[in-house]
């Protein structure tokens, strides 16, 4: 049966973890996967999460099946984070939300639902995009194309190119947009540019699919929700996949959500019924733990305030690492990396080539994605000098 099965390549991001774990060098540094580490090099267990977990343990709640669309209090809290508590769309019942297995699970539910709805659609992702976007939509049966996005020369967005690419897409193409903290480049659109993207999607009848995995890592919860709010104001239907992996440091609990904006309450009921079919045939219904923890935190004023404070600490530490990296690279003679300070979120598109990334790994034990993406959130006061020195060395 398996004689002709070929060995698949390692995942470009998660595969790095496997290689990193097998590396015996004590000085190794993992700047590959998008995970936030503290200055001590640990994945934090947030205090707000600990408190919610404690409460759950004490309640000794039974573990029955959740509804197919997940915990109602969780879904509502997700909607309020994404669209704002006072959103007219929420009041009108125009948002359908289902708990999902992380942001990836949310993308897959959305993709499978769209495949039933518009089987011949093309999916457009940014050039470059998160590696798994292409793989995920292709495995859901769509052809995937790129729209122009990153401009390496300016370390910014090729916005004219982006608009031209979107404008050339056939109606009902799915456009996957990074709502904030673009992965892998760290380069985001301005509010003015978002307004133009919203307008093109509307004029051309495209299907916007906003991927929001890093809300709170750029400027704050509401600030980072700006793109979602602009799409909401435009009146068009769209999709949002969201994740608490990063913002709650709950990577392994797989806590995300798919939210779909419809035109009215009646559409919402029908859309939800179809989304439930997609979920039921994939994994039946979501797990209880992560969703309960997040819902408890978001629905308790004290825990919510604590979480926002902790999220702010993570955001500030990443910004500090950006500044220090730029300074240390300059001091090590690596050149001007000021652009790293302008990038948002966990990642920096460093400009390193695949060959340079390989030398970083082989000679210095520093792991990065072969595209040159480094996770700035994994830098700390103990490894940053070595990282800056190694980057300077490979650039010489
Ligand atoms: C990343 O891009 O590193 C993260 O989103 C983790 C993942 O699943 O790839």
TrEMBL record:
<keyword id="KW-0808">Transferase</keyword>
<protein>
    <recommendedName>
        <fullName>Aminotransferase</fullName>
        <ecNumber>2.6.1.-</ecNumber>
    </recommendedName>
</protein>
<feature type="domain" description="Aminotransferase class I/classII large">
    <location>
        <begin position="27"/>
        <end position="391"/>
    </location>
</feature>
<dbReference type="InterPro" id="IPR004839">
    <property type="entry name" value="Aminotransferase_I/II_large"/>
</dbReference>
<dbReference type="InterPro" id="IPR004838">
    <property type="entry name" value="NHTrfase_class1_PyrdxlP-BS"/>
</dbReference>
<dbReference type="Pfam" id="PF00155">
    <property type="entry name" value="Aminotran_1_2"/>
</dbReference>
<dbReference type="GO" id="GO:0008483">
    <property type="term" value="F:transaminase activity"/>
</dbReference>
<keyword id="KW-0032">Aminotransferase</keyword>
<comment type="subunit">
    <text>Homodimer.</text>
</comment>
<comment type="similarity">
    <text>Belongs to the class-I pyridoxal-phosphate-dependent aminotransferase family.</text>
</comment>
<keyword id="KW-0663">Pyridoxal phosphate</keyword>
<dbReference type="InterPro" id="IPR015422">
    <property type="entry name" value="PyrdxlP-dep_Trfase_small"/>
</dbReference>
<dbReference type="InterPro" id="IPR015424">
    <property type="entry name" value="PyrdxlP-dep_Trfase"/>
</dbReference>
<dbReference type="InterPro" id="IPR015421">
    <property type="entry name" value="PyrdxlP-dep_Trfase_major"/>
</dbReference>
<dbReference type="InterPro" id="IPR000796">
    <property type="entry name" value="Asp_trans"/>
</dbReference>
């Amino acid at each position: 049966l398996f004689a002709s099965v070929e060995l698949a390549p390692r995942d470009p991001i998660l595969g790095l973890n496997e290689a990193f774990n097998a590396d015996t060098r004590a000085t190794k540094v993992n700047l590959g996967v998008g995970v936030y580490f503290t200055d001590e090099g640990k994945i934090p267990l947030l205090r707000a999460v600990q408190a919610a977990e404690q409460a759950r343990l004490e309640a000794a709640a039974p573990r029955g099946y959740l509804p197919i669309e997940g915990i109602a209090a969780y879904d509502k809290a997700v909607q309020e984070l994404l669209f704002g508590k006072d959103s007219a769309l929420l009041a009108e019942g125009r948002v359908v939300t289902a708990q999902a297995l992380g942001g990836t699970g949310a993308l897959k539910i959305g993709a499978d639902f769209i495949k039933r709805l518009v089987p011949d659609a093309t999916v457009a992702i940014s050039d470059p995009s998160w590696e798994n976007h292409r793989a995920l939509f292709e495995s859901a049966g769509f052809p995937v194309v790129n729209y122009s996005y990153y401009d390496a020369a300016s370390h910014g967005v090729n916005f004219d190119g982006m608009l031209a690419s979107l404008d050339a897409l056939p109606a009902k193409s799915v456009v996957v947009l990074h709502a904030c903290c673009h992965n892998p480049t760290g380069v985001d659109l301005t509010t003015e540019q978002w307004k133009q993207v919203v307008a093109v999607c509307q004029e051309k009848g495209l299907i916007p699919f906003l991927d929001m995995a890093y809300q709170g890592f750029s400027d704050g919860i509401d600030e980072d929700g700006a793109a979602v709010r602009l799409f909401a104001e435009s009146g068009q239907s769209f999709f949002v996949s969201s994740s608490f992996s990063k913002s709650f440091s709950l990577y392994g609990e797989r806590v995300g959500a798919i939210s779909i904006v419809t035109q009215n309450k009646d559409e919402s009921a029908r859309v939800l019924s179809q989304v439930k079919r997609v979920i039921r045939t994939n994994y039946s219904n979501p797990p209880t733990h992560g969703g309960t923890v997040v819902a408890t935190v978001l629905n308790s004023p004290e825990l919510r305030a604590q979480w926002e404070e902790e999220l702010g600490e993570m955001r500030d530490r990443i910004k500090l690492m950006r500044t220090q990296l730029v300074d240390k690279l300059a001091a090590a003679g690596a050149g001007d990396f000021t652009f790293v300070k302008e990038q948002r979120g966990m990642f920096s598109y460093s400009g390193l080539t695949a060959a340079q990334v390989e030398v970083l790994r082989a000679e210095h034990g520093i792991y990065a994605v072969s595209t040159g993406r480094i996770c700035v959130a994994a830098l700390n006061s103990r490894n940053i000098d070595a990282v800056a020195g190694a980057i300077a060395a490979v650039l010489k």
